[in-house]
Amino acid sequence: MNNAALLLSRLQFAFTVSFHIIFPSFTIGLAAWLTVLEALHLKTGRQVYREVFEFWLKIFGVAFGLGVVSGIVMGFQFGTNWSVLARMSGPIQGPLLSYETFTAFYLEASFFGILLFGRSRVAPWFYLFSTAMVALGTTLSAFWIMANNSWMQVPVGYVVQNGMFVPNDWFKIMFSPVLWVRFPHMLFASYITGAFCVAATGAWYALRGVFGAEARIMLRMGLYLAAVLVPMQIFFGHLTGDYVHDYQPAKFAAIEGRWHDEQPGSEVLLAIPDSASESNKFAISVPVLGSVIGSMSLHSKEVGLTDFPRANRPPVAIPFFAFRVMVGCGLAMLLLAWVGTYLSRKGRIEQSRLLLWLTFLSFPLPFIATLTGWFTAEVGRQPWTVYGVLRTAESVTPFLTARTALTSLIVYCGVYTFIFAFGIFYIYRLLRAGPAGSLIAHPASATPGRPMSIVDEAPMTSSRDVPIAAHPVTWVK
Amino acid sequence: MVMFWVSVLALSILLYVLLDGFDLGVGILFGLTHDEGRRRSLMSAVAPVWDGNETWLVVAGVVLWGAFPLVYATLFSALYLPLLLMLAGLILRGVAFEFRHKTQRLRWVWDAAFSGGSLVASFMQGMMVGALVEGLPLSHGEYSGGEFGWLSPFTVICGVGLSLGYTLLGACWLIRKCEAEVRASAYRLIPYLSLALLVFGMAVFVYALSEHLRVMGRWLERPYLFAFPLIAAAAAIVLAASVRQRRDGPPFYMGVLVFAAAFGTFAATFWPYMIPFSITVDQAAAPHSSLAFMFWGEGLFILPLMLVYTAISYRVFRGKVKSTSYH
Q1: Which of A95, A265, A344, A356 is deepest in the core (most CB within 10 A)?
Q2: At what angle do helices B153-177 and B107-134 cross, to 10 degrees?
Q3: Percent of chain A with pLDDT over 90
Q4: Minimal CA separation from A301 to chain B, in Å
Q5: What's the gap in Å between the CA of B27 and the closest CA on chain A?
Q6: CA quadruple A199, A204, A207, A209: dihedral sign
């Protein structure tokens, strides 16, 4: 076994998947928000909802494109770097991920085209339906990815035959309780990401004193939505913690920073875990709270890391700190959403520049929370790829050399940094320009002057490409 | 069940080669012109369809993983570097469609990314096909050829060959979609491209004979294989005739026929092997429970929808493109 190649492959997977998740977690939430906006537009007939819709649709297009492009690499990487895992778990992971491609492709590609070009060509209810179908497509995509990952976290419904995980109960795989806790957790994370990005944009415009009506809608809807969703997310986060407690005790102990069995267990709030001495430095802990959180009990015995042989323990520092960063971001968002909602109900939000600033600056929080949540889940699963059954060190392509793995890591880092730097710059430019320009270059209105533009732009396949191309005027400086 | 998924895999690979083939070819041709008007026409001719085309690669990839995990794992890990370069090429050319219109100063960067990415992706795909034909060194079911086991004079020839083939398809597509100067220069290019492909075919044949590739034995065992080159030759004759008469319709379909014949040759030559002469379809197939799970949802319902959808989007996009429009 080549340890350098293994480490480089893990780094590459972590890098590419972390970069990738940023975009879907944003677009899943945004698609749902677009559906709400279109429904409001239809119900109230207010033009401003439509303007906000058109504006966010363009941003959706760019982010969606970057998500698709970075996602392609993921589908190949299992085979190139993790060939043993790919061969063994292919009968289960392969079908799950193929469903992801098939369902997402069909729904997103067909209906996204209608969103871009169909406004004047389809009935309003059908336009709303198309928006909902795009949202459903992104949601289904998330579902299959979570089904796949949840199976890796807690494998069920299989037998091992000829060195492969052979599915013998798809019902168990599809209705694994772990999946149905983690899928909502991811979905809410996406919705909250969308909500905070929208609210932050609204706050930005409010601070600059531009786009008053649109800014009001963005700020209010974003904050109200977050005020409802964040508590629900914390609840599902707790349920996710319960599954970890029950099915992955070593991961739970690492998250808690608990080295030795305790009865009742205390809760370490902050510390610096030290693997060498198997203890925490500078620990701040609350007695008994660990048992309450872990088992809803005052007396329960809570398992420590030293119960597990060193070879079966996850690294402690990353899950320990990542989890705390995630929770910290969650609590900060909860506070912000509630205070913002309160001020908004009182009609004072536009006067509170401090709150507007905080809201504007809050847009990285949901992304950080999503990423650190995934770090906790994935690093905490170590040293396994399929928990308890297949080790990461045994999953990697056996003949992969460090030189090859380093080459691909450098190439992916280079290409991603290059395209994402441009992509984010263009999203920034769109956001800065604001919603006013959104109706200027609407393709439907551009059509009569350019008869070919129907054949030119209408085909719905170009989900990645068309959104920007369709609005040339707004792009030209 | 196994036959169903072999067919789906074959169909998605064929669709990928035909569809992304022409738009990669247009990408290569893009590098040969410096005129902004022509470049726009070229991009317009493929912009609305390219990412739908590329989706078939992803479909082929996930079907391969779900239905034939052994081949997915063996092949992808063996072809590590060519796959890496292919993906990098596809990513860069893909984002170039969006980004070149957003900048004046840095447009050359995205133009280079578009044509360079297209060429690299095509070349790598050709090399990978070549490596399969030549035979990947496997021992005990595991690749044993090292980092560059896929690299040989033969695979380089195949890389050049597929790039030429895609370029030919691209030129035929441009005849259908464009007018004026772009169409005229595509017509002028086709004879040269066809000639180069012919030379490539002969080079492959001579190489295979001299190296005693096991492939050649198959042709003696299965004489019906000669039907495929005959189909290709007939298509080439029609292609030549319609190019002479400047008829815009047939060339693309003839190019498609040549590619389909080449694909049929591969499939029929190697059947029932998926990785030639070491892993067969039956050895590679996933357990029945996996294949059935895929069949009763995506196979039976979604796949037909995807095919209808692809057909519709090409129908919407039929006709010539105006060179003045934004892609």
Answers
A1: A95
A2: 130
A3: 46
A4: 41
A5: 15
A6: negative
What's the rounded Cα separation, in Å, for the pair A457 and B226? 43
Q: What is the CA radius of gyration of chain A?
A: 24
Scored b (16 or more CB within 10 A) or e, B74-101 reads bbbbbbbbbbbbbbbbbbbbbbbbbbbb
Residue A265 lies in a domain: no
Cα atoms in the 13 Å half-sphere on the side-chain side of A137: 25
Check whether the bond before A398 is cis (ω within 30° of 0).
no
- Asked if B53 and B23 count as a contact pair (C-beta separation under 8 A), the reply is yes
Nearest to A319 by CA among A262, A263, A381: A381
Rounded CA separation A8/A164 (Å): 25
Residue B292: closest CA among chain A residues belongs to which residue? A95
Angle between helices A124-153 and A83-117 (to 10 degrees): 170
CA distance to partner chain B, nearest, from residue A349 (Å): 36
Asked if the C-beta of B148 comes within 8 angstroms of chain A's C-beta atoms, the answer is: no
**What is the per-residue pLDDT across A171-185, written as a single tens digit (0 to 9) for each?**
999 999 899 999 999
List C-alpha distances in Å: B92 to A439, B31, B95.
30, 14, 6
Lowest-pLDDT range of A117-121, A149-153, B129-133: A117-121
Regarding pTM above 0.95, the answer is no
Q: Can you give the residue range of the structural domain that contains A442?
A: 3-246+309-475
pLDDT tens for residues B67-109?
Answer: 999 999 999 999 999 999 999 999 998 888 878 877 778 888 8
Query: Which residue of B150, B288, B289 to mutate against A (max A Cβ within 10 Å)?
Result: B289
Give the angle subtended at the CA of B86 by the CAs of B82 and B89, to the nearest 5°: 140
Residue A300 is assigned to a structural domain of this protein: no
CA distance B150 to B146: 9
Specify if A432 maps to a domain: yes
Q: What share of chain B is helix, strand, coil (3-state, %, to 5)?
A: 80, 5, 20
For residue A269, is it within any domain? no
As a whole number of angstroms, the distance between CA B127 and CA B156 comes to 6
Asked whether the beta carbons of A80 and B80 are under 8 A apart, the reply is yes
How far is A161 from B290, CA to CA, in rounded Å? 13
> Chain B partners of A399 at a C-beta cutoff of 8 Å?
77, 142-144, 146
Give, in order, the Cα–Cα distances in Å from A237 to each of A188, A250, A380: 10, 18, 15
Q: Are A74 and A17 in contact (CB under 8 A)?
A: yes
Instruction: Look at residues B86, B84, B100 and name the one whose alpha carbon lies nearest to residue B24.
Output: B86
* CA neighbor of A385 nearest in space, from A93, A8, A144: A93
Find, among B144, B143, B128, the residue nearest to B87 by Cα.
Answer: B128
CATH class of the domain at B2-316: mainly alpha
Between positions 111 and 140 of B, the ones with CB within 8 A of A are none
Q: Residue B179: phi, psi to the nearest 5? A: -130, 180
Distance of CA B76 to the CA centre of its chain: 17
Best residue in A19, A80, A450, A460 for a mutation probing chain B (most B CBs within 10 Å): A80
**Residues 6 or more apart whose Cβ sits within 8 Å of residue A337:** A223, A226, A227, A230
State how many domains chain A has.
Answer: 1
Q: How far apart are CA B303 and CA B97, in angstroms?
A: 27
Cα A418-A422-A426 angle, rounded to 5 deg = 170
Residue type, A224: Y
CB-based burial of residue B306 (10 Å sphere; 0-12 exposed, 13-18 middle, 19+ buried)?
buried
Which among A9, A70, A83 is the top mutation candidate for probing chain B, defined by the most B β-carbons within 10 Å of its own β-carbon? A83
Q: Please, what is the angle between helix B36-46 and helix B2-30, to 10°?
A: 170
